[in-house]
Structure formats: structure tokens, C-alpha cells
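new request in #modeling-help
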Amino acid sequence: MQPDLQQKQQQQGIDVAVLVSIGRHPTTGRARRAEQDARGLELALAIEAELPGTRISMLHAGSQDDSSEAALRGYLGMATGVGMGLESMTLLEQPEGSDAIPALAKHLAATSPQLVITGARAERGEGSGLLPYALAEHLGWPLVNSLASVEKVENGVVTLLQALPRGQRRRLKVRLPAIISVDEAAPAARQSAFGPARRATFAITPTTPEADSELAQWHLAPARKRPKRLKIVKAASARDRFKAAASKSEGKGGQVLTDVTPEQGAEAIYQLLKEEDVLR
Amino acid sequence: MLETLLPILIFTALALAVIGALRRIRLWRQGRPSRVNLFKGLVALPRRYLVDLHHVVGRDKMISNTHVATAGGFVAAAVLMILVHGLGIANPLLGGLLLLASASMFVGSLFVARRRLNPPARLSKGPWMRLPKSLMAFSISVFLITLPTVGLLPEGLLEGSSSWLLALVLAGVVAWGLGEMFFGMTWGGPMKHAFAGALHLAFHRRAERFSTKKGGGRSTGLKALNLEDEATPLGVEKPADFTWNQLLGFDACVQCGRCEAVCPAFAAGQPLNPKKLIQDMVVGMAGGSDAAYAGSPHPSQGLGGKPVGEHAGSPHGPIVALQGKALVDADTLWSCTTCRACVEECPMMIEHVDAIVDMRRHLTLERGKTPNKGAEVLDNLIATDNPGGFDPGSRLNWAADLNLPLMADLKQVDVLLWLGDGAFDMRNQRTLRALVKVLRAAEVDFAVLGTEERDSGDVARRLGDEATFQSLAKRNIATLAQYRFLQIVTCDPHSFHVLGNEYGELGGIYDVRHHSTFIAELFDAGRLTFAPWKGGSVTYHDPCYLGRYNGEYEAPRNVLKALGIEVKEMERSGFRSRCCGGGGGAPITDIPGERRIPDMRMNDVKESGAELVAVGCPQCTAMLEGVVDASAEVRDIAELVADALVERSADDVSGASRQTTASTAAEEVIL
């Protein structure tokens, strides 16, 4: 009886919401599916393959026009094969320059998916990478960044593999609902196919747009190319030169805190921020 | 007794043949509609058979003569037999003709039998091995039963009670012959090729490929998908998604294996055998497994062949399975280099490349399953208009010092120089610089599109991404529409083919020339002067997209001749040229095999003894130069011409045509 029930629960799957944005090709600046968001959808599709019955919904907040539609259809084209529930994307319609966070937070609170997947940083707009954090704050859900893979979902707890620098991985167990953000550590997105992309539809949901008041005060200018600091390598052998080229420099100073209470951790962070003059 | 038995046998066989024909036609009609003028096709049938088909079959004189004797004898014998023995018109003249026809068929069948004694690997065995015996049974029995009609045998011989047995045996042999020749023709025996083949010739999807009285026909451009109509399937998922005349074409296959013998992917041990692929389509159309296939299988890496009998399909089932096995594995479709060698050799005029690209379209457009680097290349084409993902603004960087005239400035020129994506490739940039030097030496009024140029869409289309192809093509056509030029010249045969043969369907009609053709014209017009050739022996590699796709075999050879080079031909050259392995996106999908196609081609070059191989295609250059430890140098024709250029003297500038003195060019230069 017990395993039967467990299996049933497993087969039920979970509700996954993938937040997608309109990307920008680094060379030509053309609108496209954003690299990280597409990886997020790939992650969702991997969950669906592991856990049949998982429902994926795609969510985009922004305006609708021809070029953005073509870019968004790039995500829809990843849903090849019938019955993935990806024949449609929810579009929270709001004019350019509106703040996406309130609209997304409101929609997510209303639909209450168990897992929200988003790219770490947008390719256009501010690209501050703050959206996942702001959403987590709004919704009061835990956030895990830089995800490498979702290992399993069981009884409302998801086991995640988080990517750390230099190929390290950390296994985490997080209670649902949760937000996870993906960057280049997640598996690459599959090819987008023209047929499913063309057939897919948009479910347009009007929102009460809130103008991004902070963005309005910002001064935007094209990025300048910054000079790169050259590493001076004194190496005797080819092996040393290769090692120097391949390895990232180890961080100096700092301390690793393990087995500390949240208060101690917070105190340490507070001290560091004061030392670095971030807080005064 | 035979008099009563024969009409029964003949008309039973005919009736069964008609029923079989109707069943077969129903199988073909599962396909999608295709607009063909049925009447015109039937009228054109004799010419298509006697001229176009015979042109292909005639490359092997022995088989050609065998077929004339056997098939000609059979057709005549069948008609006369119905008249003489079926309807009982015992006219000695008709009888005599029937004897002659069956004798001719018998002689032919002896040669068929001889070929089957020790058949080459490319021929299918199985039911095909019994065909010569059936042919003999038919011809001998018809000959014998006709002897009495002309009085060469006493009428009574078969009448007497003692010859009952003889008559029965004879009737039995007649039945065997009729069974194979009439019944088997429409019920799927080896003779099916005659019935389906004749109709395929008449209702061919590319009526333009056949010659007319005015001259030879050619039709090599892929057919466009209708992307406007969402009901049109994007490519071929299941056998029934082919058009009905494509299905008919598959059914016409005689399994002679000429395609297999010339296929570069098959030779390289990649999992493609064009003959098997066509038979797989026939299996799919009728439903069932490929267990009955009796030819060489699809090769597979290191194992010799993929076992036959594991794949199965149905008219409305998928050709390539989402998981596991269906009719064909995806690797088979992606192994093709679209070199058209199979189509060129096929005596039944089957269009293998069309079918393969149709199926690739489904895999790419519906399933998003372009293998290996395919997806990346297509994404690059969408985002940057070139397959390498380079900044489109850097398309002209290689010519920073050449001060190339731009179409945007001039608006109107004689020649538009189409650069192609080789503009981003350092090796091809050398060719392009050489070509510019040649054009300047001949004082050609030319300009380039520069950064306005995009990829022609060749790779996207061959990888099955018709949407990206049409997007690129439409934007290129819009760009070209802004300017006025007499012709487009390019050093890339792929661009040449796409611009010249495939843009027409989308509204872009241009006079396109390959640079070798254009240089040959310039030379003939006396606008170029060459120093005599001092290098070693040279061979020429025909690019598929220049030769087989566009029929240009002469111009490059004429240019080499004008340079004073005597071409040492490779065994496989001209229309039988072996592909370099670079076409159809094959280097991108990169299906593993036992050998590499360019290695085999460079081996051909080595066997010719040449120290240098002249090429006329950036893909061929890249593929052939990538061969390790090659025995020959690879140079583009443009480079050879640029190196041999000589400043023209004042007399030459007068513009005298060299048409008549072309052969003495070398002496002239020395003066």
C-alpha cells in the first residue's frame, strides 16, 4: 500500500513555472530566446522527463510586438512532442519600461506553482540579476542560485545540485515552493523547432502596470570596453604555463565559516560589509 | 488442349495483373497530392524512356543491350501472345514475329543469367536471382507453343493422347512465365520495376529534368515548402507524407545498386545506402518489415552493416522513431552529402536527395533534432546571417586593403560579385583576393554587396531548416532588388546553385555564373593573358554543386587549358566525380563512418599522379586541404589564374577576340 501511494504521488508531478525574458544576441543585438532562460526551460523539461505528470507553464511579463513574439516563440519551439502543456505561454502584458517584479509576483502568488525557474540575469534592460532575489523576497520563498541540475522531487522536498566555482557541486534539499535560478552551469538548451513554435499560442493576461520608478532615474549609456589586466606568468615549463592559463587565481584572505548559527553568520557578514565600507 | 488452356491462362494472368495494378495504385495514392499533367506525361513517356533513361542505362553498354533484347522482346512477345494465343489469331506472320520476339527475349535472358552467375555486391539477390530463370521460362515456353502456329511443328504433336504430359508441362512453364511477367509485375515481384518505372517516368515530379527536342533538361533545385499554409506538413514524417509520385518513384527501383556504388557515404562506411533507403520507403509505403530486403544493408561503424529485419514501418507510422527503431535511423538521413551522385546514376530517375531533405525537414522543423553542430549553425544563421556566428559587419574585413566597390555606392554594375560565407574563412579569403585580382586585370565593372550580403541559405536548407532558408532568401532577394546588374559571379558553387536554381521559386531570378565560367568567358574575349604553366601535373576535382547540379564540366577545364595545363583526369571525374564530403551540411552533422570521404577523394587524386588538384569550391578546398599527409596541393582555379596573369601589351588591349586562337595562347604570351 505504502509504495503504491508513494508511486502515485511521484507520478503526480509538480507545477513548474519558468520565467522567460527576451534575449539579445551579443554580436548582432537581435532579439532571441535568452540563453539562461532557455537553460531554465531545459531544466524544467528534464524534470518533466523524470517526473511524468509535471506541468510546465511559461511566463513572460512585457509588451507584445513582432520581434518579441519571435523571440518568445523560440522557447515554445523547445516543446517538441505532444502533451507537454507547452503549447501556450502566459504573457503578462505591460508596456515597455514597467517593473516586471510586481506583475510576476502577483501572478505567481495567484497560481502558486511549486517550483519557479528563472535565468540568473536578463540580456537586455537592467540585467542586474536582482529579479530572482526580489521575487523570493516578495513571495517569501527560498531561492537557490546557479543550479546545475534537479536530482529528485519527493514529498514536497526537492534535491538540487548547485554549481560552485571551479566545477564544484553542492547538494541541497529545499522544501517547496522554491525559486531556482540558472546560469551557464545548467545544461545547454535544446534546439528550438519551427513547427511547434509556430503553432503555439499566447495567453495574454492584462496587468496593472507599475512603472519602474528606479529605472526612470537611471542614466543609461553603452558599455565601454574595459582594459583587461594581463597576468604576468613566470613559468619555466609548458606545463606551468598551461596551469597558469587554465586555473583561476585563488581568492586571498577571507574565511570559511562552517557549523555556525545564523546569528554568527550574519554577524560575520555584517563585519565584512563594514570593513569593506559597504555599510557605514 | 493447349488451345483451350492458353487463353484461360493468359486472361487469368492479365486479370490478376489488373487487380494488382489497382492495389499498387492505391498504395501510391496514400501520398499527398502533386500536380502533374497526366496526359502530357504519358505522351512524353516514349521520349523520356528512349532518350533520357537510355542515356543513363547506356553508360553500361552490356546491360543496355541486354535490356533492349530482353525488354523489347518481352513487350513485343506479350502483345503478340495475347493476339495469337489469347484471341486465337493464328496468323503465320504474327506467329513468326512472336517467334522472333521470344527468341530475342531468350537471348537477352541468357545475358541476364550470365550477370547473375557472379553478381557484383551492389545487385540485390533474393527474388532477383530467379528472374533470369523466369525470363527463360517465359521466352522458351512462348517460343515452343508458337511453333505449331507457323507450321514448323506438326499440329498433331501436342494433340495425341501420349503428348498430354508434354502439353501439361508446357502449360505449367507458360504459367510460371506468365506468373512472373504479368502477375508479378503488379503484385510486387522483380518485374514491378517495369510497371511502376513506366508510370514514374510519365508522372515524374520533376518534368523539367527530362530533355525535350530543344535540348537537355535539368532540374536540381529543391522544391520550396509552403510555409504560409499552416496545414501543409513541415517535411515528411511518415511515408504517406511524400507526394504520390514520390512514392511511385520509390516503387520503380530495380535495385541495381548503381547508387550504392557511387555513394560517398556508403563508401565511407557511414550508415547510408541509397538503395536500401529507397527500399525502406517501399516497405513503409506497403507496411511491414525490411526482412525481405536482399541487398547490402546500411553500413554501420566498424560492424560492416546494420542487420536487416529489425526495422519496420507503416504508411501512417513515423519513418524515424522518437525512441527506438522505426523504418530508418536518423543517422542514415544525416549521412547524405546531397552530392546527387545517386540521382545521376539512377536508371529509374529516382530523386533520392529530395526524399532525404524532405525527411530532414521534419526532423529539424518539427522535432528540433538536427544532430551535432546542426542546431548551433542554424541558431547562428538566424542571429548573424552566417553559419559561423561571425559579426555580419566583419564580412568585408578580409578586403580592407582592396577598396572594393560597393553596390550601395554604385547602384548599377555589370557584375555583382557574390562572396559567400567563404568571406569569413581565411583559406577562402585567399581565393577571393585572387578572384578580385583577376576581375581587376580584365577590367570588369563589378561591385560587391559587402555587409548587405547574407548567407545564401544553402546549409540551412540542406539541414532541413526551410524556414531559415526562406527567411535568408527573401531578405537577400529584397537586397538584390535594390540594385541593377547583368549577372552574379561567385566562387562558391553552393551559392551559385541556390541563387540560380532555388531563388527563382521565391521570386528572385538571376543570371548566375561560377567564376570558372566567367573567367573562361573573359579569356575567350581576349581580356586575360596568361604566362605559360611551369608547375607539375594537375588534376581537376569537379564540385558536385557545379557539375552534377549545374552541368558545368567544361568551363573549369577550358580555363586550365588556357593556363597551359593538361588535366590528368581522375578515374571518377565529370558527372561521376566523387564528393569531397563537404556538401549537405555533412561536416556539421558529422555522422561517424569507417573512413573519411575527403581522404578517399585525395586518394583518387594520388592515384591520378597529379601534384596539384585544382578546385572551384570553398567547401571542397576546406575538405581536401584538411586531409593529412596529402600527396597533392589544393588550389582554387582563381588562384591559379591570378598567379599566371600577365600585364597585357598595348596590342592585346585592342580587345581582339581570342575565340579562334585560344589554343595558341601560350605562344602569344611568349611574344
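bot summary: Residues 382-519 of chain B form a domain with the Rossmann fold fold (CATH 3.40.50).
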